[in-house]
Batch of 4 targets.
Target 1
Amino acid sequence: MSPHTEAGPAEPAVAQANAAVLRRFPFDDTRDLADARRGFLGTAQDSVVKDADGRVVWDLDAYGFLAGECPATANPSLWRQSRLCSDHGLFEVTEGIYQVRGFDLSNMTVVEGERGILVIDPLLCAETAAAALALYRAHRGERPVTAVLYTHSHVDHFGGVRGVITDADVAAGVPVLAPRGFLEHAVSENVYAGTAMGRRAAYMYGAALPKGERGQIGTGLGQTTSTGTVTLIPPTVSVTRTGQTETVDGIRMVFQLTPGTEAPAELNIHFPDRAALCMAENATHNLHNLLTLRGAQVRDPRAWARYLTEAVDLFAGASDVAFASHHWPTWGRDRVVEFLSTQRDLYAYLHDQTLRMLNQGLTGPEIAERMELPPALERAWHTHGYYGSVSHNTKAVYQRYLGWFDGNPAHLWEHPPAEAAKRYVDFMGGADQVLRRARQSYADGDYRWTAQVVGHVLFAEPDHSEARELQADALEQLGYGSENGAWRNFYLMGAYELRNGSAGTPTVTASPDVIAALTLDQLFDALAIRVDGPGSWDVDIAVRLHITDGDTVTVRLRNGVLTHVTGTGPAAADPDVEITLTETDLRALLLGTLRPADLAARDTVEITGDPRRLTELVGRLGMPDPDFAIVTP
């Protein structure tokens, strides 16, 4: 088997399985195609969006190949979904409501008011948001942005805000609306575990993969993530309850809060004067994630289903169109009710049936293999697992209720992957013997087993070139057969990195705007995560910070734990050094843009005690690794 760095063809077993998909599902149903193109007004003349340095952050034509026939290297169902998602341009949803689609992973919605426009969910980066706004204005005129609304706390729904408004706009009275808890969740998700999430998101969205028949063809939810500048302007208006109404620029909105569904802070919006319902990301044309593969807190499918029922009861009877922050709208009151009700049944079924089997003693992987959707659900294209999947969502429900442990004591204290792999390979007769048998499994079309068993060889002997090549080939075939866009990207990214080395993390979400939005409590908590615990077991350092425009905070590193407390009580006793400084200087110090050694030179800073203790404390903070290994130890 000769090494190669590029993707290969589909093996016969995968090609046959993909061909069978064409016979299984109603590909002659073209309603989604008509809906996805309805209301098209035009698209941008320049096909690429660039940042200030001229780097391409989005390419509108990158997915032009999807207009062709589905090749053997792609699941026809995913190919169909990706073709629908790749349509880009400005679309009229209904009178006064427009969407720019295909300019990022998400949609940007524009609602026309009396003087200007309300922008809903300004994409992931400032560059694509600015391009989307320019497209809208090219067709509808130079209307000013009079309000911005974030439907939820995921970065692809707020990161482009500085492409549509500025701080000066907000200071002049442009409101920014968001659901209760938005800022806390938006910033914490992208900072606390942000490095690991970002690295895994590189696999999930495949932004670094070549676009094409053997590479990245989409994620199911949209095509991929843009790679521009992530920004954030904090909300100025909080939506705190279902039934709350707000009117901005003459646009009347009625809100439904849906916390714990697709995001921990999320809302739906009804526009009663337009008979239009925005479902944010709670009802899109796919099965969504209950636990996203990039990592997050497990979502609650039971609550999700109940909020969808509530949306039907509250709004569907007065809605001629339902649209979301991804995909295309659904028109007609009967179709809206059917769409939302079927989505509701989808999440409720996965929840209830997982619990039924869980209580019969089945484990997460066992339930995932047994779970089948009812025929009525499987027939609906919008229930397909293009982004979430029945398999990993079922395991997520199991995890939500019972956690990682399946109850078998043999699994309670297993060896970690690399140590277990060495023992497995030794038991199986060594790497060469494992690979000999794995090649036969590959020839038999059992790519799942090939990847599983060769993974042990790689973790036992990471530099084994034949194992790397066979593993890459197996992952590639699994990707070619996947209906789920995120699965395909994970498999193909694994193959790519085994052959070419790490592609890194293309999209950085912990941007300066996101970091600046952290409260001081969150910032101290984020620093605590970076402490080298074992290297600090014997250290006891206390620094008292008198913030001239705020509170007194004492930070203590003791027993490898960094804690902070406000005030001067017993937990703040006996500081080694006291520093009086502004919050701006403190933030600069904590973020590393101001060195401890440079503090004394600032006129706004006073220091009492030993300043070297602060330098020592800061020196105990490590940096996360945005390039850690995933397919090798």
Target 2
Amino acid sequence: MFLTISTTGTPERPATDLGFLLHKHPDRAQTFSTSHGTAHVLYPEASAERCTAALLLEIDPVALVRRGKGKGRGGAPDAALAQYVNDRPYAASSLLAVALATVFKSALRGVCAALPERAASPLPLRIEIPAVPARGGAELVGALFGPLGWTSVEARPVALDERFPQWGESRYVQLVLEGELRLADVLRQLYVLLPVLDGAKHYWVAPDEVDKLLRAGEGWLADHPERKLITSRYLARRWGLTQEAMNRLELVRLAEADDIEVEALDNAVEVDVPAETPDEAAAVAADDAGGDVAEAGDDVAKAPSLAALRRAAILAALRDADASTVLDLGCGQGQLVQALLKDPRFTRVVGVDVSVRALTVAARRLKLDRMGERQAERVSLVQGALTYTDKRIAGYDAAVLSEVVEHVDPPRLPALEYAVFAAARPRTVVVTTPNAEYNVRWETLPAGHVRHSDHRFEWTRAEFRAWAEEVGRRHGYGVTYVPVGDDDPEVGPPTQMAVFAGNTTNEKEGKTG
């Protein structure tokens, strides 16, 4: 396998700076041992005007088969000859990608103590690889490299045999890339896309490959139009790993769009079961474990927790609305989804949350991996942000925003409103949120504090009604209000609930809400 990296320069900024950036001196040929062969780095030309670094990887196909015990490409029992006679010593693949990461480890990370500014700046670069397997042809090569800033992407098909043009073209291309990019970015692109073009990997793909993909794809993969294909092929089409990577890439994309850190989005799981206040944490945990709670030494069970009352109120509102397909928007760890599945009238339940960690907890809570086929058809968990329109959540009878709106920054509330009430537009929307006036009744909650550290605000009853009435007016919903918990005559209930009833047609049953 062979790859060259070329650049041009001036007397002030000589091209031989490439040696500093790659951490390989142009005056020496160097040899490195890799897991499946020997890598050589040499410089066919090195002057102030032009410098070319070449990576030559010598693969021992016999040793490769022995190391893999016949597994991988060409390792099928009925393809014994293919194990020894194949393209692996010649065509760029995951073997060359691993050699790149081994030999140019510091350059891949963009580290260069001698020339840090040069490492951080784009360079005029030309990449040439004589033989690249391209499952998808030259068109796929263009689709993968075209969006990455290259001014020229040339993928010349290699003939099966030049002496017999009637035989047509092989699945290999000669790849030439030209443009001004950071060297580290280029190496990371090649590390990911070479095995993607080949459509195979020479080693077992373990869960840590997701982290490798995201590190190498930082800054370009999340917004790549072919990110799904790239992710699937890089992870050897392992569905579970591909889904995990896609979810994490979506978080990156959303964080970049809002100019915030990913951790600020994926912060839903702080404790196993979220609670309204420190006093209520034990009650909620016990409620999730199986129902009512009782203090130590008490023989009489206490009243259900506020979390249980809230779920009961939501379920009652959905039944009154005659809903059968329900969205739990901001589903967190799946408590409401679990409750919905216990009622057969809800034939389709979808939990949506921006937090991958929360969805992982929800999947464990619901025992999705052990759920029967018929039950599994009723439920799905989807990663997504509620402040973005999403065609996946359109067409449902009802949507629930339970203890969600207070986690949204006020400037983002109009985006949430549009995504739910205008774009998705379910027939019924149920919204619950804390009543700020009731906070004085929580003895352990300091004055002036909100109930949860992630709450951006908490509304009084008047503020909540003003918001709900305006949303209903703008989008054609009537609104009714339901107290949840003890309705204190002075400060109202601990949780306030609004039920939005729209006039959209329920096509399934042919009636209006």
Target 3
Amino acid sequence: MSTFRSILSRAARGALAGLLAAFTALAVAELVAGLVRPAAGPVTVVGGAVIDRTPAAVKDFAIRTFGENDKTVLQLGILAILAVIAVGLGIFALSYRRIGAAGVLLFGIVGSAAALSRPDSTGIGDALPSVVGALAGAAVLYVLASKAVPATAPAVAEGQEGTEGWNRRGFLAAAGATAVVATSAGALGRFFTGRQGQGAVASRNSLVLPAPASPAPAVPAGVQLKVAGISPFTTPNADFYRVDTALTVPKVDAGTWRLRIHGKGVARPVTYTLDELLARPLIERDITLTCVSNEVGGPYIGTARWLGVPLAGLLKEVGVRPPSRGGTADQLVARSVDGMTLGSPVEDVLDGRDAMLAVGMNGEALPFDHGFPVRMLVPGLYGYVSACKWITDIELTTFDAYDPYWVKRKWARKAPIKTQARIDTPKPFARPAAGTVKIAGVAWAQRRGITRVQIRVDDGPWQDADLARQAGIDTWRQWSYPWKATPGGHTITVRATDGTGTVQTEQRTRTIPDGASGWHSVFVTIP
């Protein structure tokens, strides 16, 4: 029993030493990142590298399972793995201090390599947080390991306490001091990180959006049905879905932001400031955006009133023509400040739809989560080929010459939004009372519009739902159906018909490679 307690005591000391070393490394790295560049923090860069190397099917699973919390789950997973490794290194360091410390340094090398490999890396300085943090963590592990074991292993008589000879007081004092210093370093790092974003926050707060030269018409009466549980026609900014790969939301100072347009067919490359864009005639439009990761019946869709600069006008001014008129570029590659790349068909951008560089969302400057100061959007295309947030560069090229981020991961090059309908109410497995039950939801087919929605209960005939007024072909459309519900379990199914007369397909497909398809259905029980 004494020997067992001795082993447990030794393992506990080693585990604590390893965890404190890892905590110190991350805290010091956060402090250095706050001084250098917050996006270069080790958890952020390693997480970004993991996202980049994760198969598309796994990414899709993460979004389906965890929704907008997928990045939080990833970060927690990274920290959990680091904790397990830190415990192992700590126990190992009790016998081999130098090798244990070297193991911590190895993680610094991994973090540095990840930082320098990021598409938004600004140079060798991005490696500093991981390097300095690893050095601090290695030093802590070496010191704590030396305090946790005796300088020379004394003979322990049978029956004696196995912890004799180790510097209990020195270890606990060193561990406590380490925890205090590391916590202070982490807090100071968060303070500096916050200060770096203050300029961006101030620039957004002071931004006054000009009135649009082409305002959106008032939302027509009748587009919003008075049915409890149905999605509002206009999605509030706070509720608008967010799906991207950014572990930390970029905070860009509007005063220093620039947009460069260049590439094939561009007669003269040009760079714009935000003020120069805002001085141009702006358009205001109600547009529904949809993420390609949206499963049948999924939540990754929303409608907002967008304010922005017509993208076609900017491109035409620098000489860009669509391929159908002799243009040499058929792909527009948009780049974000964090290195993300999205590719849009030039033909679609220039075909007369309201493609824009948006600066406003629902009457205010873009929220940081949604791309402040400027994002791109092209109605009718899934977001991964059109809705570049935090945009800073537009290159005209060809689909043969370049594959953007998602295309490299086996998603389709071109992705027009598919016709879909969703049941918002009743919810799956709901238990509404018998009698008239309002079935309601939304349907969308951007660039085509919705002309019909039909409901089927169990294996009964398709029945036409009542349609709300359609605000435009680029927005979703609400619908409802009064169902005479009878007791028992029932499956409710919905399908839509778009403006071309095409009925939504029943064929069920996953989101990869170009968006989900199939009919949405819910099962309810009438008591």
Target 4
Amino acid sequence: MSTIGLMGLLVAFAGVAVSVLCLLAGAILGRKQESSLAETLTWGGHVASILTTIALTVCCGILVYCFFAGDYSIEYVLKQHSSADGALGWLYKLSGLWAGREGSLLFWAWLISVFNSVVAIRDLKSPRKLDSMALMVSQLVLVAFVGVLLFSESNMPFTVTPDKYYNSNGTLTNAATMLGMNSLLEHWAMAIHPPTLFVGYAGLTIPFAYAIAALIVNDSSKEWVVRSQRYALFSWLFLGIGIGLGSVWAYVVLGWGGYWGWDAVENASLLSWLVGVALIHSFTVYRQRGAFKRWSVMCACITFAFVIVGTFISRSGLVQSVHAFEGDPVSLVLFGALIVVALLAGIVGLIVRWKSFGPAADGSDEVEHLLSKEGAYYFNNVIMVVFATLLAYLTISSALPDFLPFGGQTVSSGTFNAIARPLGVVYLAILAICPLLAWGTTLRAKFLKQARIPAICAVALFVSLAVYWGTYLVPSYDAIIAAGGTTAEELASDGPAWYYNGLALVGFFVASVLFFNSLFMLGRTIGAYKKAHGCGALAAFGGCLRNNAARFGGFLSHAAMAVILVGLIGSSMYVTEKVGYIGYDESTDTAAENFTIKGYELEYTSNSVTEVNGGNDILYTVNYDVYKDGNYIGSVSPAVQLAQKTQQQKLVASVISLPGEDLFVVYRGVNNDGAFSMDVRVNPLISLVWVGFGLLMVGVCVATLGRRRASRKLTDSQRTAADAAAGESASVDAA
């Protein structure tokens, strides 16, 4: 198996190298003159990219087979296999493919090759210069990934299992049997979380490749944006899904009571997601107004660079993280070089093509006024890029020289919150106003007319949220501060009470405006369709969904962000936590007292010790009945799962979800006196985070998969004109 896998990597490397050479040679010959040889070479480059995908598929398939068959002849399989059984046992075995550094790099390389094959197959019959150049750029990225797998011993996924792991009779040693997947990773959300992120990472290679290709062929038309926009949306969607699944896993498995901890690896995935927001909105302006040409190219490069920055953080050993991979010098050099090359390619390319990608001569594509859609998109981009840059800087601050700000220091979550919270509120405020603005210049009378009804509704919602804030959230804050202790000190470090509570109130106002502006713009879109086609409301809804999916999905996504903002304010700023011990008498199986927190009372009923995963793990569970203001609302069964071989512990939280809040219960074992160690939290409005996230993903799906009324393809004559303009400034309308 190891030999077959190695041969597969060799074939993949040869295939991607041949693909790059053929595409490059075809481009050079085609630039000088049209010839059948150039066309043949270009076609061969497309075919070679498909063969590369087949070879990498075989490589991934070998590892998957070994995981399921229990074949430990490959060291990576021995170290990352899962022994879990049950309904999800197969999923955990499959997730071994991406559980470690070597396998995750192989999986990522395979995904890039799949995206490249989509580009190649889409254009296989009659390859165009723009697509061929984009494929070449993306294949160059793949060369780096396959090369680091093949030529770096520490990244090789097909290393033969050393003899030290075997007894003389061929069985595994006791030390070898203790190897395997970390039990913390054996959760459905965590099993799916990495591959969804990798799909997003791999997909964002394509917009970058098209941006560089547009510079190479000197085509500043909308075609490269049209060709890559769906890849950007699709990739951003999967990045969002991956971040959401990671939050679910952190919430119910890690036992910390939260879904985000500003860990380096968490931040790594957020970086490219944030800049992806800027990229998607830049594409909108490029397609509709022909503006932001230079910035869109650079934004595609920055987005790809931040994808690599995330990988650089989690795989280079640059910073410490609870779930980063072990450091590797080869990865440090490779990913560091990719970051620099990606940014330099955009900068140098724009310098060379500065005039071609500049504004129109009549100034029709420039930002005329800051109070316009273009102005709102501009600030949108600035905030997202600044936020991502600051986040990246603070994440790697511990590895920076001491003379730099925060250099050599590990930044606390409070510092991240101090930046993220106000920036997030300002960003969503711009998002709330943007739909009411016009292209070019916004007329005051029209703006006020459009804003009147949603503003009234927003005020009504805000008043309701303000009452909830004043009667429930603020008293919770005051109670925590009054109780003192570490939690109170951390809360006080986030700023004075007037600022902390005031920011939350402003956030509620922004969320109210954003929610109703988005809903009313969505309603107006449906109403306009209904009036134009003389159909019913349901038919108009379906028509908008089919023919104006980008607009429909955009407004739905914006409304979802408002819901998320309300949930984030409650569940991250006003959490009530109580940590304590409950005395336990084993002879009578009774607890000394009930556990109380914020109107909740946990009454002990029983405990159990059971074997799970075929006897490999032991589950220590305590059971409580829960009462709210004296009324029974359910039961909780938090547990500690212990892996007998490795002695690793996993805290399994138990949650009761109510409409307004979650009761989050963690059992941390017993102390020396035999008392139960309990950590219980009340998380207000957290359900809105999950609901809003789901709506956001639906909105992006609609925008990505729905049909547009306007054609997204160029005519054959326009394509010919664009190809002929290589080396000159092209002006091709993509409508």
